[in-house]
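FORM 7B: Structural annotation worksheet

SECTION A. Query
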Amino acid sequence: MNSKVLVIGLVIFSLMAIIGSYFFLVGSQKSQPSIISYTLSDKERPKIEAKITLFDVGKMKISEDRSADFKIKNIGQKSLQLSNISSSCSCTFGQVIINGKESELFGMHKISDFAGEVLPGKEATVRVTYRPSIMPVYGVIEREVFVNTNDPENPKLVFKVKANVK
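SECTION B. Predicted structure
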């Protein structure tokens, strides 16, 4: 009789552990932002204006950090959504600033659950920060930050910084 109670207890305990683990994992997952999509044939849609997408931060030491701010403007009629920020290297980080509010830093390995909205006629800033001390490379380099958008003409923006690391 004791062995039956022990087996039943182990089965119940195992089921509770499995169910608890499931709810823990599901509850800790980040929800993906809801992105509104448009087509090129939509007359009213977001439209990006990004005049500069490459900036040379000049000569720098391996111990320095340098940042470049890129302005983007929504010249369309619908809200521009920015999401899924990532970078080309572990030493490079992207950040979005909308209405003075800064997102966290996003890099190559950080999953971005950020979704920012730029209203028609408004601007945002994409800040690209390069930290060569993380992955030391000398000489002329280019690093990139990627930003997904709901502008059908520009679904993925690429912002580059160039540096000469001494």
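SECTION C. Observations
The longest helix spans residues 2-28. The domain at 48-165 is CATH 2.60.40.10 (Immunoglobulin-like).

SECTION D. Sign-off
Analyst initials: ____
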